[in-house]
Amino acid sequence: MENQSNDLSAKIRIHFFTTDKCFGPGIYELLENVRQYGSLRSAATSMNMAYSKAWKMVKLCEENLGFKLLISTTGGKNGGGAHVTAEALRFMQAYDEYCHEIREFSDKLLKEKFSFYKNN
């Protein structure tokens, strides 16, 4: 019988709250996809998410954070689209850095607190 690795790891998903849950991995991914695809509809499709759900997520987040996440243009000759605002980009960068630092701390703490656990 082969030995399997039984290393412990922690999965951390960070959500920010104001009056409601307002920012987390889902809206972060959605905004990253808007950056990549240039529209909320395409971003939602890439995540197998209904456009209406994506729109509601963005609006709820904007209401709770107090600033616009997206600037949208309607269709027409050149088609519509969306881009992420500078304020949203700044928030996303800070969120990404915060999550990274929390995960690094968590890994260190896990090794410290569970040093007695040895895998075979």
What does this structure look like?
The mean pLDDT is 90. α1 crosses α2 and α2 crosses α3. The strands form two sheets. Strands 1-2 form a two-stranded antiparallel ribbon. It is mainly alpha-helical. It starts with 15 loop residues before the first strand and ends in a 7-residue tail after the last helix. It has four helices and four strands.
Adjacency order of strands in the biggest sheet = 1-2
Order of helices and strands: EEHHHEEH
Q: Give the amount of beta strand, in percent.
A: 5-15%
Structure classification? mainly alpha
Mean pLDDT: 90
**Terminal CA distance:** 12 Å
Specify the biggest β-sheet: 2 strands, antiparallel
Specify the overall morphology. elongated
**Uncertain regions: pLDDT < 50 for 5+ in a row?**
none
Annotation, overall tally of beta strands: 4
- Kindly state the percentage of residues in helix: 40-55%
